[in-house]
Design goal:
Blueprint lengths: L1 E2 L2 H14 L4 H19 L4 E6 L3 H15 L3 E6 L8 H12 L3 E4 H6 L9 E5 L11 H12 L4 E4 L21 E5 L4 H4 L3 H5 L1 E5 L5 H6 L4 E2 L3 H4 L17 E5 L7 H12 L4 E6 L13 E4 L10 E4 L7 H11 L5 E4 L2 H6 L13 E3 L3 H8 L3 H6 L1 H12 L2 E4 L5 E4 L4 E3 L12 H14 L4 H22 L7 H4 L3 H8 L4
Parallel strand pairs: 2-3, 2-5, 3-4, 5-6, 6-7, 7-8, 9-18, 10-11, 10-13, 11-12, 13-14, 14-15, 15-16
Antiparallel strand pairs: 1-9, 16-17, 17-18
Length: 495
C-alpha cells in the first residue's frame, strides 16, 4: 500500500476532479460516509460533538453531522464562532446542515464549560487537515486541550489536529485520537512517531478515488498489511528439500556472547531457510548450539558455499572481528546483512561505502546509526525519514533503521514504514532475531529490500503475538522464535 505525503494527496484529489470529472462535493460526501460507517460500527452513538475548524476538514465534519442527524443521532457542531469564510464545498455542506436544523455552538461555549464535552458519547476532530505545519493558534490549542481532557472517544478526520502529515512531528498541542479515519491513502505522519501515537487505530478508506491515481501518484513511501504480505512470502514447492530452501551463514559469537548467533540462526530456520551454519571464532565453544544448526570455525569457511551471510551477532570489536568483516565486505556475492558489532566496526572505516560491493543490508538501531553517521542518537531520532533517504542513496545499501516504526530504505526505491511491533520488543536479543529472519529470507531468494521489509513486518508481528499471549512486559527474544512460523502462516492464509 502506498503512503502519501500531503502534497501528493492534494494532487490525487486535484487529478480526480480534473481528469476524472469527480466533483469536490462527491469526494467530501464519500469522506463523510467513511466517517459515518466507522462511527456506527465502533461506537454506541448517543450524542456526538463535531468540532470544526476553517478548512475542508470542517466540510467533512459538517457533512458527517448531516448524515448523523438524518440517522436520528443528536449532534452539536462547534465552530470558531463568527461567520467563517469556508471553502466552497465546505460552505455548501454547512448550509445543508443548517437548513436541516443542526445544533450549532461556538468554541467559546466548550472553553467556558469544558465539562460540556463529557456529555457526548463521541467527539469528532474536524479542526485541521493535512496542510497543517508548525504550532496551532492559541484558541485552537485550548480547544484541543479541552478535547483531550474530555475523557471521551475522539475520532480524527484524516489526521489528528496538531500532527504534521509529512513528518509525524507534534510541535505543540495535538489531538489524541481513539480512531483516525484517513482518506485515499495513509499519510506518513500516521505511521511514524510521535504522530502514530496520537492517531490511535487508523482506518484507510479510498473514498472512491480512481485506483490508478492511488497506485501511481504516491511514490516516496509504502507499507503493507497482512493481505499484501502473502504475495511477498517465499513459496515452498511440493518437491522442496533443505538444499532448495537456502543456506545461511551467521558469523559472530565471542566469549560471553555465544547466544546471539544462535538466536539469529534459529530465527533464519524458523523463517524457512533450509540450512544454517554458525561461523564462529576458532576454538570458541557454543554451549547454546541447538542440534538444528551447523557450526564451523572461521578458518574453515568457504564463503561461496552460502546463499546469504549475516555478520555481527555477538561478534565483538576485537581485531579478528575487524579482519573477518573486511573479508565479508570484499565479497561480490552473496547478499550480506551487517548487524550489531559489524556495524560498530564499519563505523570506524573511513568512507567504507566506497570499498564495498552491492548486496549489503545494514540493520542499525539509533545508537549504531548515530556512529555510522557521526551524529547523536537524538539527532538520528529527530530525522529518521530524511536520514534513511539520504544515506541509502549515499551508501548504496539497503538500510533498516530499527526502532518504533522501523524504516527500510534502498537506493532509488520508496521507503518502507513498518506498522507492526510494540514496546515489548525492547529487550536484548530481539535484534539478533531480526537479523536472522532477514538473512533467512535472503537465502530463500528474496531481494534485499524485499527481505528486509518482510522480515521487519514478520518480526514485529511475532512481537505483537507474543505480547497478546504473554503480556506487554517480560518477553524474551526466544519467545519470538516459535511464533515466526505462525505469523508466516497467517500471511500465507494458513491460520
Amino acid at each position: 500500500m502506498k503512503v502519501a505525503m500531503a502534497q501528493e494527496m492534494r494532487e490525487i484529489d486535484r487529478l480526480a476532479m480534473a481528469e476524472y470529472a469527480y466533483p469536490g462535493l462527491l469526494l467530501m460526501e464519500h469522506a463523510a460516509l467513511a466517517l459515518f460507517r466507522a462511527l456506527k460500527a465502533r461506537f454506541s452513538l448517543g450524542k456526538v460533538g463535531v468540532i470544526c475548524g476553517k478548512g475542508n476538514n470542517a466540510g467533512d465534519g459538517w457533512a458527517l453531522a448531516r448524515l448523523l442527524i438524518l440517522d436520528g443521532v443528536e449532534v452539536t457542531v462547534f465552530t470558531p464562532g463568527a461567520e467563517q469564510q469556508l471553502p466552497p464545498d465546505a460552505a455548501a455542506n454547512r448550509e445543508i446542515a443548517r437548513r436541516l436544523g443542526i445544533r450549532e455552538a461556538p468554541w467559546t461555549a466548550l472553553l467556558e464549560a469544558p465539562a460540556l464535552l463529557s456529555s457526548f458519547s463521541v467527539l469528532v476532530d474536524a479542526l485541521l487537515g493535512t496542510g497543517f505545519r508548525g504550532e496551532v493558534a492559541a484558541e485552537m490549542a485550548a480547544v484541543i486541550a479541552a478535547l483531550n481532557k474530555a475523557d471521551r472517544p475522539v475520532v480524527a478526520v484524516d489526521l489528528p489536529s496538531g500532527v504534521e502529515a509529512d513528518t509525524g512531528q507534534v510541535p505543540g498541542p495535538a489531538v489524541r485520537a481513539t480512531l483516525t479515519v484517513t482518506f485515499g491513502l495513509p499519510k506518513v505522519g500516521l505511521l511514524v512517531y510521535p504522530g502514530r501515537e496520537y492517531a490511535g487505530e487508523v482506518i484507510v478508506d479510498g473514498i472512491g478515488l480512481p485506483p490508478p491515481l492511488l497506485r501511481e501518484r504516491a511514490t516516496g513511501y509504502y507499507t503493507f498489511n497482512q493481505r499484501e504480505l502473502a504475495a511477498l512470502l517465499p513459496q515452498r514447492k511440493a518437491e522442496a528439500h533443505k538444499g532448495t530452501q537456502g543456506h545461511l551463514l551467521v558469523v559472530g559469537g565471542s566469549p560471553g556472547m555465544t547466544g546471539a548467533p544462535v538466536l539469529a540462526g534459529l530465527a533464519a530456520l524458523r523463517s524457512g531457510a533450509g540450512l544454517v551454519t554458525l561461523g564462529v571464532r576458532d576454538g570458541l565453544n557454543l554451549p547454546e548450539k541447538p542440534m538444528e544448526v551447523l557450526a564451523k570455525p572461521w578458518s574453515k569457511l568457504q564463503w561461496d558455499a552460502y546463499d546469504a551471510i549475516v555478520v555481527g551477532p555477538g561478534l565483538s570489536t576485537q581485531p579478528d572481528g575487524r579482519a573477518i568483516l573486511a573479508t565479508v565486505l570484499g565479497l561480490e556475492r552473496p547478499c550480506r546483512v551487517l548487524d550489531a558489532d559489524a556495524l560498530n566496526l564499519l563505523a570506524t572505516i573511513s568512507r567504507w561505502w566506497e570499498k564495498v560491493k552491492e548486496g549489503l543490508v545494514l540493520t542499525p538501531h539509533p545508537g549504531e546509526m548515530a556512529r555510522l553517521c557521526g551524529l547523536t542518537a537524538g539527532e538520528v531520532q529527530a530525522n529518521r525519514l530524511a536520514l534513511v533517504k539520504e544515506k541509502t542513496r549515499e551508501w548504496g545499501v539497503t538500510l533498516v533503521l530499527k526502532g518504533a516504526a522501523t524504516l527500510v530504505g534502498s537506493a532509488e526505491e520508496p521507503i518502507y514504514i513498518n506498522p507492526t511491533g510494540n514496546p515489548a520488543l525492547a529487550t536484548g536479543g530481539t535484534g539478533d532475531v531480526l537479523a536472522g529472519m532477514i538473512g533467512g529470507l535472503l537465502a530463500q531468494g528474496l531481494a534485499p529490500a524485499q527481505a528486509a521489509a518482510v522480515g521487519v513486518y514478520l518480526h514485529g508481528q511475532a512481537g505483537d503475538l507474543a505480547a497478546r499471549e504473554i503480556g506487554p512486559v517480560g518477553i524474551l527474544a526466544g519467545d519470538l522464535l516459535p511464533r515466526i512460523p505462525r505469523v508466516m502462516g497467517m500471511g500465507a492464509g494458513q491460520c
